[in-house]
């Protein structure tokens, strides 16, 4: 008798435990427990083309040496702010100064010689006039007259030759003086010394190549040199808005306007990239040369609009007829996708990174549904190409699943507009604050339909309210 009582108690405990476990496993769950629910929000949306770029000064000049010699003194250092005509460096002027002194001495000698020749010219003119007077009276010979005439012409020629030599010497002197001036290197523009490549005491040889001493740049305006892939370059246009962030201040945006797209690409390892340039003010000098910029070209932008996660729209478009009726370009007046679905609760897992990852079964179910739709319609599965396709911008229809105030799930057709890879604009069909299903939170236990086949994860028979117990 005692054993029978103990056995009965054990059986009762096991039965109660099994019942509780069965109830917890098969108890109906609310939509908020099963699905990721997101609200319709209001905000700004941008459709962007992203690229990487490098910051360079808009205007800069490499300052070099025009004469050869030893670099005697550098008067600036990297970071020095200079103005135009400031002295930057000096080359040893000893040789150039000696050349100038020699030219000046030679010039003085030539001018003195010219004075002597001019005095001789005056004498030659007087002698020639005397011979002319004597010849008129027949008091001189022809030979004396001819000698006086030749001496006059010779004096004039010598003076002309000396004048040419003086002009040549003056020209050479100007060149020597210029070389002497080139020994002092002045700033050709106002700006900041951003690099110095020569060393004090170094010998510069300007005959073989133009030696660069330093670089001056105007850092008040920076140019962002951006490399854009050939797949995205056709989306750019001159004058479009563009902004960028830097590694050190990712929370701050610098805005500019696309100035130029260079027609000749850069090809590296069969990757074709085009240079896109735009300028940005740098009054506070926060931007520096060679900084890396994460650049975003604003292809489309809308302000103060209703927004949904892209996953919510993708979620609403999954199902047996998603390939045909999930999203329709243009306004469209065809029958809503919700009228043809077996159940409003048929939702596979979300791919939104902000939401919980669905179970493997849910993911497999979604992939199978997408593949079936692709085979039946001849169109690529929306589930397959959503992560890689470019965002659409035109108004179009989409079907989503809305959680109503009474806890039911209803399908609704809305009109959407601009989108990016994260959010999509809602043009009509939703109000701010409404709750929309964006993905599966927890995998429900598969139920079996009337045909005896297992139903897809999360599916409910037609007409059954969300959260109702599932059974055979």
Automatic annotation (TrEMBL):
Keywords: Coiled coil, Transport. It is found in: Cell membrane. Residues 317-398, 444-472 are annotated as: Disordered. Residues 60-214 form the Multidrug resistance protein MdtA-like barrel-sandwich hybrid domain. Its main location: membrane. It comes from the Bacteria. This is Macrolide-specific efflux system membrane fusion protein.
């Amino acid at each position: 008798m005692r054993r029978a009582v103990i056995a009965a108690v054990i059986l009762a405990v096991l039965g109660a435990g099994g019942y509780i476990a069965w109830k917890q496993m098969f108890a109906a769950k609310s939509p908020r427990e099963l699905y990721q629910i997101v609200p319709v929000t209001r905000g700004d949306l941008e459709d962007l083309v992203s690229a990487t770029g490098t910051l360079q000064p808009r205007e800069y000049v490499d300052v070099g040496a025009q004469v050869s010699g030893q670099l005697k003194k550098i008067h600036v250092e990297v970071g020095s702010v200079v103005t135009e005509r400031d002295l930057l460096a000096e080359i040893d002027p000893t040789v150039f100064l000696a050349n100038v002194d020699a030219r000046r001495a030679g010039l003085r000698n030539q001018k003195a010689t010219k004075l002597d020749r001019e005095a001789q010219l005056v004498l030659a003119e007087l002698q020639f006039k005397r011979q002319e007077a004597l010849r008129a009276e027949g008091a001189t010979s022809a030979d004396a007259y001819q000698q006086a005439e030749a001496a006059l012409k010779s004096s004039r020629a010598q003076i002309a030759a000396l004048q040419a030599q003086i002009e040549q010497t003056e020209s050479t002197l100007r060149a020597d003086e210029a070389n002497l001036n080139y020994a002092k290197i002045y700033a050709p523009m106002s700006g900041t010394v951003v690099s110095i490549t020569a060393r004090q005491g170094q010998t510069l040889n300007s005959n073989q190549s133009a030696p660069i001493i330093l670089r001056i740049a105007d850092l008040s305006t920076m140019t962002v040199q951006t490399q854009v892939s050939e797949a995205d370059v056709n989306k750019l246009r001159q004058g479009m808005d563009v902004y960028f962030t830097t590694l050190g201040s990712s929370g701050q945006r610098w805005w500019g306007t696309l100035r130029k797209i260079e027609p000749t690409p850069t090809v590296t390892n069969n990757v074709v990239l085009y240079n896109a340039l735009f300028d940005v003010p740098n009054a506070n000098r926060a931007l520096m040369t060679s900084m890396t910029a994460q650049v975003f070209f604003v292809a489309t932008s809308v302000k103060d609009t209703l927004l949904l996660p892209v996953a919510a729209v993708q979620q609403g478009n999954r199902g047996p007829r998603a390939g045909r009726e999930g999203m329709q370009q243009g306004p469209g007046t065809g029958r809503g996708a919700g009228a043809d679905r077996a159940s409003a609760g048929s939702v596979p897992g979300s791919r939104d990174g902000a939401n919980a990852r669905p179970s493997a079964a849910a993911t497999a179910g979604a992939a199978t549904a997408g593949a079936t739709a692709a085979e039946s319609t001849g169109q690529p599965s929306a589930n397959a190409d959503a992560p890689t396709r470019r965002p659409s911008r035109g108004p179009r229809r989409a079907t989503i699943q809305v959680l109503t105030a009474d806890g039911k799930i209803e399908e609704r057709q809305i009109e959407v507009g601009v989108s990016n890879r994260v959010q999509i604009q809602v043009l009509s069909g939703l109000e701010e604050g409404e709750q929309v299903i964006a993905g599966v939170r927890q995998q429900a236990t598969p139920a079996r339909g009337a045909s005896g086949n297992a139903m897809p994860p999360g599916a409910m028979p037609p007409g059954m309210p969300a959260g109702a117990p599932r059974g055979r």
